[in-house]
Design brief:
Length: about 160
């Protein structure tokens, strides 16, 4: 087992620990009716709300949510409880209510930890970045000068 600690792992673990401490300290209501499936669905919805891309499938968001949930189910459950309304779980709220909840809690350590996880999960996944038109790293082909530098067909010709 590799016991080395990378900077990314340290930041992730620190953010998760801070999120757990802050969420517990906030005195959340004792709503235990959320099942693991509810938490996963809510996290998947939250991921799409934080980074809405029409071309990214729900499967990608669900995989990121599942990874966050598997790392620490208690933090994930507390995060979803914090964003849920007293009468409706997060993923059953309308868009305006979800976005208002995110806006009210955007500086929360739990939201930031999840946002960071989604950011890394989406934009380091080659199958996702290809949907945005990213052709992969350029160093193998000596940059973009001969590969894709002049293929801006979506912009008007400056000449």
């Amino acid at each position: 087992m590799d016991t080395s600690l990378t900077r990314r792992a340290l930041i992730g673990r620190t953010a998760a620990a801070l999120a757990a401490a802050q969420l517990v300290a906030c005195g959340l209501r004792g709503d235990t009716a959320l099942t693991e499936a509810d938490v996963a669905a809510a996290l998947s919805r939250l991921a799409r709300d934080l980074f809405p891309h029409d071309r990214v499938t729900d499967r990608h968001y669900a995989a990121i949510a599942r990874g966050f949930l598997d790392r620490d189910i208690a933090v994930a459950r507390l995060l979803v409880q914090r964003l849920s309304a007293p009468d409706r779980p997060y993923h059953h709220q309308d868009r305006a209510a979800r976005l208002a909840g995110i806006e009210a809690n955007i500086t929360d350590a739990g939201v930031q930890a999840f946002r960071f996880a989604v950011l890394l999960g989406l934009y380091t996944d080659l199958s996702v970045t290809r949907t945005f038109g990213y052709q992969g790293p350029s160093f193998e082909d000596f940059g973009y000068l001969e590969r894709g530098f002049d293929d801006l067909d979506w912009l008007p010709d400056p000449a």
